[in-house]
Amino acid sequence: MLRIAVPNKGSLSGPAAAMLHEAGYRQRKESKELVLFDRANDVEFFYLRPRDIAIYVSSGRLDIGITGRDLLLDSGAGAEEILQLGFARSTFHYAARPGTASGVADLGGMTVATSYEGVVEKHLADNGVAATVVHLDGAVETAIQLGVAQVIADVVETGTSLRNAGLETFGEPIMASEAVVVRPTGAPTDEPEVQKFLRRLQGVLVARRYVMMDYDIRAEHVDQAVALTPGLESPTVSPLHHEGWVAVRAMVPTSDAQRIMDELYDLGARAILTTGIHAARL
Ligand SMILES: Nc1ncnc2c1ncn2[C@@H]1O[C@H](COP(=O)(O)OP(=O)(O)OP(=O)(O)O)[C@@H](O)[C@H]1O
Ligand SMILES: O=P(O)(O)OC[C@H]1O[C@H](OP(=O)(O)OP(=O)(O)O)[C@H](O)[C@@H]1O
Ligand SMILES: [Mg+2]
């Protein structure tokens, strides 16, 4: 049986449960449930604080966890990411009032407030900068107004929180983060149960990122058309009853689908259709 840690709160929690549900796993019905056994799939889910997940997984008591890359690195726990899940994307930046600093090298002697002191202390040390790091649990942007720090280091998504506090980022981003699947460092990923779990999540990612495209085209243009729709491996090309025409079927990235349809139309393709993919195993 696989034992899997799932975020119980915050930005990771809803999308993680939605992805597991799409992958065919039972998920909890109410937020007070902390453990759920999915008998049909022989998987036990533990709903834990996102910050604690890498620590539980590194202990080896849980086989797999879903957390944020930034939380994994901040914990310093012996766990490693084995799959990127594409949600809870953010970047991690230093920020301050305009004119305070233009890069990490300017931070010597300053005070930096953050909820991610593991990441920040390492980044300062890697850059040879001696600054004081103050830990705050959240709402870090306010630390500057209240005089607790001159600089903050925090998660930025839209930048709204920073703008509202009159702050701006400076220097290079410290890291880019997204939700990831983690395993204890060095644990094998080729175990059948782990592979099945990863294939299910990869199936959800494919279903979200691709649509199936079908079209008819004159046989003499099929090579040009297939160059636009190469598929993941190779498109299916079938003869049509109407002589000189073929039907093509290929997966295309959802984000490019409209542009590809326009270009196929210009090549002479007709009956161009896209349909959603509900589930996939590649
Ligand atoms: N506004 C945001 N947009 C995208 N990802 C975010 C955002 N805020 C936090 N994250 C990501 O979510 C994870 C943090 O989850 P966590 O539950 O600890 O904090 P949270 O989502 O800020 O919730 P809260 O602070 O309310 O507990 C990190 O990986 C972080 O990069
Ligand atoms: O760039 P934005 O789109 O504004 O998002 C970033 C903000 O979101 C998170 O805060 P959250 O709402 O989780 O509050 P917290 O600071 O208490 O964690 C994060 O800590 C930033 O403050
Ligand atoms: Mg937060």
Automatic annotation (TrEMBL):
Keyword Magnesium: yes
GO molecular function, one term: ATP phosphoribosyltransferase activity
Coiled coil, from the record: none
Cofactor(s) it depends on: Mg(2+)
Record-annotated ATP phosphoribosyltransferase catalytic domain positions: 49-203
Biological-process GO terms, alphabetical: L-histidine biosynthetic process
Catalytic activity: 1-(5-phospho-beta-D-ribosyl)-ATP + diphosphate = 5-phospho-alpha-D-ribose 1-diphosphate + ATP
Activity regulation: Feedback inhibited by histidine.
Keywords assigned: Amino-acid biosynthesis, ATP-binding, Cytoplasm, Glycosyltransferase, Histidine biosynthesis, Magnesium, Metal-binding, Nucleotide-binding, Transferase
Residue ranges of every copy of the Histidine biosynthesis HisG C-terminal domain listed in the record: 207-278
NCBIfam families for this protein: hisG, HisG_C-term
Homology family: Belongs to the ATP phosphoribosyltransferase family. Long subfamily.
Protein name: ATP phosphoribosyltransferase
